[in-house]
Amino acid sequence: MTSGYVGRAWLARAVGAVLSAAVVLVVTGGRTGPPSAASERPAIWTAACPGAQCPYSAPTTTEQGFADDVLARLNVERAQAARDYPYGGQTATLPGLAEDPALEQTAQAAAEYLASTGTLEGYSGPFPSGEDATGENVGGPGFDSAGEDLSVMQSPNHAAAILSVASDFAGIGVACDAQGHAWEVELFADANQVAFNEGQARLQAELAADSVYAQSGGTITTVSEPPSAGGGTDNARDVFPTNPIAAGSPYATGVDWSCQGPSYPSGSAPVSPLPAPVTGMASSPDGGGYALVDAAGAISVHGDAGFHGAANGLALNQPIDHIVPTPDGGGYWLVAGDGGVFTYGDARFFGSMGGKPLDAPVVALAPTPDGGGYWLVAGDGGVFAFGDAVFLGSMGGRYLNRPIVGITADPGGTGYRLVASDGGIFAFGDAAFFGSTGAMTLNRPIVAMATTPDGGGYWLVATDGGIFAFGDAGFHGSTGALTLAEPIVGMASDPATGGYWLVGSDGGVFAFDAPFLGAD
């Protein structure tokens, strides 16, 4: 089956047909404003269809992820400096397209209609009430999000709909048919007639900039063609360079979506079950998920925990031994035994101990409350501060009965606690001491520590899953009396319930007053 795109930038001018090496593109005629003739609409569309009245099925997780990635790619294209144009005596930039729920629902319904009929046709249905149409692209079947971006950006008239300054909002709909092929509808609009008129004025300035890089629709003037295109002159709108296309490569946004789901760069895909021994876990801020990491840096995600990348495609000098989420859950840090720090998502890099001499391996990281820095701690109690993290003391150079195995920060950002494998607690700055197991005889050594959300207590966990609660940390159960296949290596608290999860080196997860969301 031939894949293609039907599209229009709704301007008061005619557009022509363009062929792309990637897919066959058929471009229909365009006009200003939303279509209104009932004869142009497929039977699914009625006057009451826009917005919440549209008969459609909510997109699947895959379809929504696909649509979100398409919108992200379109905004990457608009954000390129080459799209700037003169307006009002200044250089203006193309703003990002805002996601509009009503327009998105309309686009989704249209995409599902295409998938159900198996026929590619331009969208001629109504737009949500109060919105004025500025353009649309329709494509399918059988492409991925990167292929969509590349195809439309290589076609002047499709790219014109994307790069038009007249558009403020976008609705992206993706429907996967029974054969696993994607059908996609992109709708572009202004909020109201005033915005539409202003957008058209800006669009004329954009066109008058006489730059095919700034507006793929080009201008009505002529430009010189490059030698590769045959030389001579042509209408600017018909001479669209293949560069700059910023988001047409598979992993331009870090992921590539198809109806088979997301794919990631080699070594950066979530993996389940994790092949190497699991070394740690991190929970989502809302308690709705958790991520596990193994010694090779591979990541598995469960519940609503997001995947932001992994280190298992890298040549590591030392194994990964810790994962820590950013305060908003939009990323995480991975820490290796040599003090190497690897950042993903919105986690920022402020420095590491990688490549520097250490007296003992680095075992853990604790971020500051705003995510603007972090502390690393080594097995000898040495503490290393980066970013806005302040050094408040350490156990480096001092005698320890047992090595340090963890560090947690006080929520106020002015203190931290170290924990040793015998359960000894060492508090620095404003971090309060609530008790320890340093003077107790333990069946198994302590391996991890977690702090309550308000910083008023903490839990210690031993390799047999024994839990020791201090301060306002509640005891919700343990695996201390169970026979485990592999030892416990980490724990994470559930901010929503006050409970916690434990994870074994085999990826087994044990939930206590916290939802069980899967294991490896």
Number of helices: 5
Give the overall pLDDT as a whole number: 81
Molecular shape: elongated
User: Main β-sheet, in a few words?
Assistant: 7 strands, mixed
Strand content: 25-35%
Describe the structure.
- With 520 residues, the protein is of the alpha+beta class.
- Helix content is 13%, strand content 30%.
- The protein has helices spanning 61-78, 101-117, 145-153, 156-163, 193-208, and strands at 4-9, 18-19, 24-27, 85-87, 90-92, 98-99, 132-140, 169-176, 182-190, 222-224, 233-235, 256-258, 261-263, 278-283, 289-294, 299-303, 320-325, 331-336, 341-345, 362-367, 373-378, 383-387, 404-409, 415-420, 425-429, 446-451, 457-462, 467-471, 488-493, 500-504, 509-512.
- It has a seven-stranded mixed beta sheet with strand order 2-3-1-7-9-8-6. Strands 14-15-16 form a three-stranded antiparallel beta sheet, with no helix packed on it. A three-stranded antiparallel beta sheet has the order 17-18-19, with no helix packed on it.
- Strand 15 and strand 16 form a beta hairpin.
- Helix 1 (61-78) packs parallel to helix 3 (145-153).
- The longest helix is centred in the first third of the chain and has 18 residues, at 61-78.
- Mean pLDDT is 81; it is low at 7-48, 210-223 and 236-242.
